[in-house]
Amino acid sequence: MTRPTVQDDTVIKVALVTLAALCHCDPAPGAAPVDGAAVVDGPALADAAPEGLQLRPHAVNIVDAEAAREVREYMLGRASVLPAGARAFLAHFEDSYDFLYVFTDGPVEGATAAAKFSVARRPLLQGLGLSRAASDPRYPAGRLRGVVGVVLNAVGNGPTLHETLHYWGMFFDARFGFGRDRDTNFGPHWGLADVAGQLGGFDLGTVRCAAPPDAAPPCAPDPDGLLRMTAATFGPNANGGDARAYAPLELYLMGLLPRAEVPSPITVWEGGHFVSRDPRTGRMLFEVRATRTVTLDAIVALHGERPPAPPEERAFRGAFVAFSEAPMPASRLDALERWAAIFGDDEPSRSLLSFARATGGRATMNTRLGPAR
Ligand SMILES: [Zn+2]
Asked: Quick one: 138 and 228 in the same domain?
């Protein structure tokens, strides 16, 4: 089954708050724009952008009441797609973008997620657990693969890498045990598995038995039959915001890493239950019914092997657009510009990874905007 929409809960918000502190380490945005031709501030360039647009090299603010309302409703959980935003963007820009990152013009009180992905079009990619191609007729026909809605907040970065990865996963069969713990279904995320990637999961190297203390797994069950283990802080559905590179298994989903280079087997905690978190060390205590291992061979046996992505599946274009009912403050658009430039690998950051860096240089995401009409 293809999920049209992916929601990300408070774990990502926690990650964002953590990143907010990191972000302050970064140098302030450069005063000089990279591409003066696309800046609307200068009087000589005041008419360079069409009416209703504020244009930066990597970000645009479009005044469009319908699209602005739509993305707010989307973040409030009242809409599942962003077609008005896609149409409003394509009314001004050519159809040459794979991913559209649609932002609110500020915080949204009551938002159910920091960001959400929805697929526009995706061929039937082998090896991912998909049963059919995806094509949402509500989105305009064309090149668009997916649309990410994001709440623009003071943090200045978000689960951009995470949301983009949702185009490729995680869609493995539920029988493998990914994406859930004893009580919760985390949807298309890794859950309690040692993937330690953008879609969550723990790092097996940090796991220790509760008793005897500090012993490495395998752990002996307690008299009640449960395994008690601790792990360094992780999220079952997200890790590290845009500061975390894609895990090898995630690169495999994207067709960027061959099967032979993916660590296997993967440890999955069955019936896992989060008990507590040590406020001093951040280590998390879990009760686990059983550990199991899932081999990549077993995944391939069920879903087929993910073929290496061809060149056109490694060089993407993404567009960052914020919709508002009135022109948004320049400072907010500047913050979005910087976010987009970092994501597109046009501006360095000490704490945040570009899409290209997160893939280890195996793919690119060009976020530079073309001319607007
Ligand atoms: Zn997610």
From this structure: no
